[in-house]
Amino acid sequence: MNNLYLDIQTPMQSAHGARLLQVKTQIQAGSITAISGPSGAGKSTLLRLIAGLNTPQQGEIRYGDQCWFDGKTRVATRHRHVGMVFQDYALFPNLTVRAQLAYAQQQRNNAQIDQLIEQMGLQQLASRKPEQLSGGQQQRVALARSLAAEPKILLLDEALAALDRSLRDELQQHLLNWQAQSGAILLVVSHDLGEIFRLASRVIQLENGQIIADGTPAAVLLPQRASGRLQLMGTLLAIESAGVAALLTVACGNETVATLVSPEEAARYRVGQSISLTVSAANACVSTL
């Protein structure tokens, strides 16, 4: 099993102008790690450096006992056995879905292609070209093509962001199964907390090109102390008498919420007013969807 070792420095453009991306860490073999941080933090740049699409200004990248970059040595992308799924899909415009997957294979394996097409829900689209596919469909093809190459490292940059929730959940499980069977390293850039917590056992948080946190998803992404309260913003629709209390009906997004207050408190509000509701976690009801 091969670990991925990174000790790199390179200029980058961040949301605050020019910065230096400095990353020194080791990714364990057979692990799933999420890379988080705001836009311009260096997440996509880091993935491109690992893939060999960009070259660091200085430093070292090693995979097991193989040196991919050290200033003198630079291994080309095609020799790194890295799969990449970025936000722009990068599909070949002249190839059908099936041909995209076949092109990625080291050796032709029609059974594997058929399996991936079925797992990604692409059976009815196998003979179509990218221009005939929606954005979500193209994203599924890009993911299937990367898996067809049987990579040792798979890099996902918001790879499931264009998919609806049910398909995203399904493909997350497929990725977990694939990673467990292959033993590959999986690096995931995502802004979806649910996706990070489901997939990753480790989170590296970047800000302005620097690692500012490294640990479990809970340690890095959850507040040290949760408030125990949920605040909802909405529009007051109605104020009705309810015996010794008053009933307020509030529109919060696509939901309508009713709550009881004292008549004295109700007198402070008027229909159409924007108000906030604070809900205590002690009374929360949790259920599966």
From TrEMBL:
Pfam families for this protein: ABC_tran
Signal peptide: none
UniProt entry tagged with the keyword Cytoplasm: no
InterPro entries assigned: AAA+_ATPase (IPR003593), ABC_SmlMolc_Importer (IPR050093), ABC_transporter-like_ATP-bd (IPR003439), ABC_transporter-like_CS (IPR017871), P-loop_NTPase (IPR027417)
Key words of the record: ATP-binding, Cell membrane, Membrane, Nucleotide-binding, Transport
Domain of life: Bacteria
GO molecular function: ATP binding; ATP hydrolysis activity
Domain ABC transporter span(s) in chain numbering: 4-233
PROSITE patterns: ABC_TRANSPORTER_1, ABC_TRANSPORTER_2
Keyword Transport: yes
Protein name: ATP-binding cassette domain-containing protein
Organism field: Deefgea piscis
